[in-house]
Write a structure and sequence with these properties.
Blueprint lengths: L4 H4 L6 H7 L5 H31 L6 E4 L4 E6 L5 E7 L2 E6 L3 E6 L9
Antiparallel strand pairs: 1-2, 1-5, 2-3, 3-4
């Protein structure tokens, strides 16, 4: 006889439930992997998106920006909440959508109030 009677006896629980939650289960390691992924990938990405959104909301005249197309320019005017006028060369100004700005490289001088 190759199999002892102890192996043939059941533990009384559901074999599927034992497979998922037992010592060799799948659920606990999957939860651990998800928690690690959350702290290493998802959370920093959300923080970066929040920072970019805040930076885009605070764009002012004189800021040096990078557009999604890789064009560097200096903000010359902020006419609306969604558009920004960027000077990409001397006397060459283009209007870009604020959400296409990927980076603000240098903050410009604050605009002085008119007396």
């Amino acid at each position: 006889m190759f199999v002892t009677p102890a192996y043939a006896q059941s533990t009384g629980g559901s074999p599927v439930l034992d497979l998922l939650t037992g010592p060799n289960g799948i659920i606990v390691p999957m939860l651990i992997v998800f928690v690690i992924m959350y702290f290493l990938v998802i959370r920093p990405q959300q923080a970066a998106q929040k920072k970019l959104k805040e930076t885009l909301a605070n764009i002012r005249r004189g800021d040096t920006v990078v557009t999604a197309g890789g064009i560097l320019g200096r903000v010359s005017k902020v006419p609306t909440d969604t558009e920004v006028e960027v000077e990409i060369a001397p006397n060459v100004k283009v209007t870009v959508i604020r959400s296409t700005i990927t980076d603000v490289r240098a903050k410009g001088e604050p605009v002085k109030d008119k007396d």
